[in-house]
Every structure is written in C-alpha cells, then in structure tokens.
C-alpha cells in the first residue's frame, strides 16, 4: 500500500513540475519573439535553458508537497 501512494505522488509531481517548466520555457520563447530582435537560435536556446533550470528547481520543491498530499 505504501508504494502505491508513493508512485502516484511521484507521477503527479513529475507532471506538475514538467508542466510548470514547459509553461515557463514557452513563455520565455514567446516573450523574446514578441519583444526585441533576437535570433532564432537564441530564442530556442533560451527557452530550452529556462525549461531545464525551471525543472531542476521545481522537481525537488513539488515532490515533498505531493508526497504529503497523497499520504493522507
């Protein structure tokens, strides 16, 4: 039983952090596309970099919250 809630909590935390990171990465890309005169490589690279960093920050932050939520 304990493994079931843990697997579900980890799956949800991965999805939440991936979604959050994706929104930030796409937001960065759109922001640089609409404002300024940036090259295509800089926009894609910056969006990927923001996605990666946001995922690194979000995953360890969201996982304990989801573990607590699904334990109860």
Q: How would you concisely characterize the structure shown here?
A:
The protein is mainly alpha-helical.
Structure commentary:
Helices cover 90% and strands 0% of the residues. With 72 residues, the protein is mainly α. Helix 1 packs antiparallel against helix 2. The longest helix has 33 residues.
What about the largest sheet?
none
N-end to C-end Cα span: 12 Å
The whole-angstrom Rg is: 16 Å
Total number of distinct structural domains = 1
Average of per-residue pLDDT values:
92
Count of helices? 2
Strand percentage lies at under 5%
| Number of separate strands | 0
Structural class: mainly alpha
Please tag this protein with its features.
mainly alpha; 2 helices; 72 residues; 90% helix; 0% strand
Q: How would the blueprint of this fold be written?
A:
Elements: H1 2-34, H2 40-71
